[in-house]
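Closing statement on the zinc ion sub-project.
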Amino acid sequence: MKSVSLISLISLVSIAAAQLQPPRPQDNLYLHVNSAWLDATAMPADRVSHSAFSEITDRTETDLRAIIEQLAATSPAPGTPARQIVDLYTSVADPKYVEALGATPLRAELDRIEAMRTMRDVAAEAGRLSQFAVGGPFEGSVGVDPRNPSRLVVRLSQGGNLLPDREYYLSDTAAFVELRRKYEHYLVTIFTLAGRPDPAAGAKAALAVETALARGEWAPTAAAPEPPARALTLTRMAVEFPGFDWQGWARPQGVDRVEDILVLHPSYFATLSKLTQSVPIDSWKAWLAARHITALAPYLSAPFVDARFEFFGRELTGQAAPREHWKRGVGLVNTYLGDAIGRLYAQQRFPAGAERRVEALGATIVAAFKDAIRASDWMSVAAKNEAVAKLSALSIKIGAPSRWRDYGALVVKADDLLGNIQRAKMFDTAYRMQRVSAPLDRREWNTTPQTANAFYNPSQNEIVLPAAILQAPLYDAAADDAANYGGIGAIIGHELAHAFDSRGRYVDSRGLSRDWWKPEDVAGFSARASGLVAQFNAYQPIDGIRVDGVRTFQENLGDLIGLSIAHRAYRLSLKGRPAPVVGGVTGDQRLLLRWAGIWRTKTRDDYQRHQLYSSTYAPAEYRANGPASNVEAFYEAFGVREGDQMFRPPNMRIKIW
Ligand SMILES: [Zn+2]
């Protein structure tokens, strides 16, 4: 026994030593940069993953709380945006009055659901509840019309189930079978809490409907593009997908006033049409009740909040504790009064000078991207010209919008959380539908300044960089250009790459839907793309579960292009001068170290597994190392050689542009 404990002692010591000594960049760039952070950082209990991005989100959240508390201290007058913000926040942050209500706030809607007699009633009720964002047996959204980029269109797509992905309903692996058992238990719990008769039968029925819908979903099987969307009038939909009352569903939301609807994944709607014939009405009732209760549970009394959290938080993602009330308060203010609070946030927290510096950096990234495309050895001249034209037409929105949304007509009460949510959702639905009928305003932002993310909008050919994303380590006012090219520069490059991925590629420089690639462009691209798929397919973060190189392809492509273009842009920004060496670290090294640093992430195992099955993003370590191991600059900057763990033979290094 003694020798055993000695051996374990030795191995403990060597593990500790290994943690103190991070790997060399040549062996693992990500761990070289991030080991110290990973060791020193604890996973927050209310998170399933913690990263540089969530650190930025946390900082922003704290800033927003401070702004709200400042407003509250001034006792703002009724009817002002400040009063709305304070009242919405108070209705969540101090939820005692909600407890006394129990299931009462659900009663009226559940009675209406129970009173449904026909499939017609189901469609009408689903349409009515869609105003509160509960939805039908599919997902609805509003976006730019690909046939006419100067207007918006209503889009319907597959989905609308409560579990994250079709695999969750269909896979026979033990983990999914067990999750479905727990999901059914969750459904029984909420039906019991809501006082629904025969909760066990209801749970089985709701799960059966969702499983049948999941079976009809289109699943990505290869790098092939999605089946094309179809534009259909409601009348035409009634012919093609009979059994569901499309008019009845559309009317309550004002969708019946639009010319036509863009139907994504048409085969899914054919399945839905068949199910309307075969699924009994009682099953639809249970299904809709489950959706409605789940949607409202976060705004009801503690038993509902807890039941939802136990399954969707703890079981599904491994989250250890629910979010604190103040964080939920900030979250709801962000969601429903986003521009009102965003305006104050941008005024107070967007550093002066950041806009100009990021604008200059963005312009250099675009210039470098054009150079890279012109220098490409596989793209046709015609495609190169269109790609360069598309880059010339690109706009970059930085910081905050110049016009703000008016929430004046929205009624907010400090003691009516559920009412606030329902009114706010209806207010949003009306706002979206009014935008569908009006011409598109390109100055409008589809996100708020306090959103810690960056976006590429394919239909408007624009990149949006909200104020909140322009924080360290992504944008670091104190750092030199090399670090900022490796941070926000690579993020801009990533977003730009989406202009040329399997969605962006079908939109031309004027915003029209059109495939402007020749067969030789497609062949050249695919040859390179397949290498990237294979590279990521080989990564295995959890025993027995590999990264899905196909599902994560677009984002991996964005990362690879983002890093390559950021490096090219950094070189361009030097205008032939040598890069400064800072503390013995070269410019290229600083750029690559920052690149690896922005991906620092801790993830709970359950969530990691969930992500590996459903996310379009690869785990952070591979997002850092995968692209780096493909770019020549990494080999030069750190003298990477055969035998080093990150080494890929030159003929395996993937270069798109
Ligand atoms: Zn992306």
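Residues 494, 498, 555, 558 surround zinc ion (CB under 6 Å). With this model delivered, the sub-project is considered complete and its resources will be redirected to Aim 3.
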